[in-house]
Amino acid sequence: MDGQVIRCPACGQANRVPELGSGKHAVCGKCKTPLDAAGGHPVELTDADFASAIASGATVVDFWAAWCGPCRMIAPVIEELAATRSDVRFAKLNVDQNPRTSAAFNVQSIPLLVFFRDGVEAGRLVGAVPKPQIEAAIRRYLG
User: What is the pLDDT of residue 60?
Assistant: First the structure.
């Protein structure tokens, strides 16, 4: 089978997408969200949808807060990774607006990147770390 596998930014479903002709766009087979072969943006998560969002596939969740300077420093790196990688889904969870999930994962320092494989925590990375360190963690925990 040819084409590439693109993980839906909304539901996490893996979709095999063939080469598309000019003007054609792929959509997720499960939720019908448009799929961009070049990637997308991190998905905003809440206490209500967190468990279902990380349930399948490889997901990196950025636990952050608006007032956090290091969180603002790492945000463009997460955006860039989300735009260039289709093998891993990226998400963000505002710890101030979602205290239940933050408490469930014992979030004590932010920014905190938590790596999930099929709903199970595989590893963590704390602080505003450089892109190569995040990529190494993705290989280590999700590769």
Answer: 97
